[in-house]
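Hi, can you check this record?
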Amino acid sequence: MNKTVTILLASLLTVIVGCASYEPLVSMRGSDVAAADPAPAEKAYAGKRPGTQPVVARTFSTQPPLIPHAVDNFDEVTLTENQCMDCHGPANYVKKTSPKLGDSHFLAGGKTFDASRHVCTSCHVPQVDAPALVENRFIGNIK
């Protein structure tokens, strides 16, 4: 009986001390774990007007080309309208001196645009000048 009382008192003491020194969990980013993530600060695009920025180098061979200009002022892409095609489509890319759509964006004959590739920003993303969030030692495979 004496042993049981000792264990019970020790357990009770542990709970009391534990509760007295309780601190809420805090994540590594410094906010309460249960709190919603704050919205990140809006970043400016690296290039403003199309044609004024150099092409962004790719870091691996199958990487979709990055968009070196802002796209926030473009109209929404619909099945009937895509402003990217105004400069990068086969009809205008030479006149606009912009990169031509890749052959992978066309059906087998090479003349019909593949509708599954119509929303350009599904794969191609505009660039912002933002510092890396974590250390990165990635080395691409393009020489």
Observations:
- The chain is about 15% helix and 0% strand.
